[in-house]
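Deviation from plan, reported transparently: uridine-5'-diphosphate-xylopyranose complex.
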Amino acid sequence: MESRVSVFGTGYLGATHAACMAELGHEVLGVDVDTEKLKKLEAGEVPFYEPGLEDVLRRNIAAGRLRFTTSYQEAADFADIHFIGVGTPQKKGEFAADMAFVNSVVEDLAPLLERPSVIFGKSTVPVGTAERLGARARKLAPAGELVEVAWNPEFLREGFAVKDTLHPDRLVLGVDRNRPGRAELVAREVYAKLLKEGIPFLVTDLATAELVKASANAFLATKISFINAISEVCEAAGADVTELADAIGHDVRIGRRFLNAGIGFGGGCLPKDIRAFMARAGELGADQALTFLREVDNINMRRRTRMVELAREACGSLLGARVAVLGAAFKPDSDDVRDSPALNVAGQIQLQGAAVSVYDPKAMGNSKVLFPTLAYSDSVYDACDGADVVLVLTEWPEFCQLQPADLADVVRKKVLIDGRNCLTPSDWRNAGWIYRGMGRP
Ligand code: UDX
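Because the crystal trials were delayed, the predicted structure below was used instead.
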């Protein structure tokens, strides 16, 4: 059955969720306070790079199923099902998540809810948030006890956002077990098409659903830092971490995915989510349980420093050296540069006196805003012009397909450091280059 839903927040999560809910046949109203963003979305333009999303957006706007507004009143009049997909960034100077956006959606929406309604939170939040927001919504809403808050965490990856939303590995729904209500039934209707395809649907209590998301991200971060820690040992022992990952990954209990060693994880989720998870465990008196995540974070940050060291070793001194940086996005198929390892490395190298030239196929605009003092080039070749060392820091296909002959006449010295282990060492070495990987001999 088609429903009317509103989605608060039109960032990576909210815009994707709104467009995909419309794709499932629902009538959707996307709500945001940012009028510029809404203007773009209304014109069928996605304000960030996400493969496939623009098609879904345009198709559903054209079909009349998807609209946008800044008006909470309009959302409350339009729908009885509301999704919250606003950001929960890291607080300045603290590990904890900043809940201001999530809180304000509930503070501003609840007083307008005159009919029985379900609010589904999708944002990644500290455990206990849903229960707190439920109490607040019931207190503020004219419909009182007939307003429910449930938690439906989102697991989408940037670059695969549409696929992950329309074909998720699983759906998780946390409901308030102390107040049996309609949330599960409503979710089953909203996601009926996915459930028909056999997507697993797990219903839990509120706290468990919140923790599922935090633990999933903590596990992924741990897996990456595990292989990066092993890559440090590989470097010391002269072993090859990529062959090692292939070999241990054959064990189905381990699995090969998320075992790519390199300059580590970044982005708007994993780094801040593990920190928020530690902070929340501390508040709950369970800080001992997650101290290992501190080490996961440390290992991750050490990989960036290691990359800077490798660049310094390659140049002798970074002072006055020309360094080509290929990649700025925190991962390929994204223009997101939040906590990007690539830009962090580029910044550190520049601070040490090198002339850095950065190129990224999609993230140049965002990079220039975040790091206006770095120098940028319009192509791989411009970036590598006269370089003493070439650093591959994001594994865009364009970089992974580079051939030694492509760059041989452009660079000053044939030295390449592969921060994502995405190139074949023998190709480069046989062509007379010095090739260094991360955790490779
Ligand atoms: C992540 C989770 O995967 C997703 O489920 C959650 O909803 C949000 O956070 P995302 O941040 O989009 O998604 O990116 P992801 O693909 O997980 O990559 C995160 C970072 O880890 C990137 O910087 C990537 O380069 C790095 N990474 C990933 C590695 O360094 N090695 C790997 O093997 C995998």
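Residues 154-158, 217, 220, 224, 258-260, 262, 264-267, 269-270, 330-331 surround uridine-5'-diphosphate-xylopyranose (CB under 6 Å). We consider this an acceptable substitute for the interim report.
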